[in-house]
Amino acid sequence: MSNAPLHRVPSWDSEVHIADIPKNEHEVIRVQYLSKGAREYASLREWWTRPNDPTDTVLKPGKSGITINLENLADVLEALQKASDYVG
To answer: pTM for this structure?
Structure first.
């Protein structure tokens, strides 16, 4: 058995659900505002339900996602806008 530390999910002082962007029938990209102390973040994370279980209606956070310090958000948005120039 590994002695590697377990991944801890941070407990946030504030979590505000901004939007769910549908990815497919069983997954969404959830956008959230998060804060911890004086630090503020934007979070984009995949949330999912079990695809073969129609009774599973509760979204669960997935491993895929990114949390961005709001101080860097403008730069990230600018880079994403540049990336969108390559679409289509």
So the answer is: 0.80
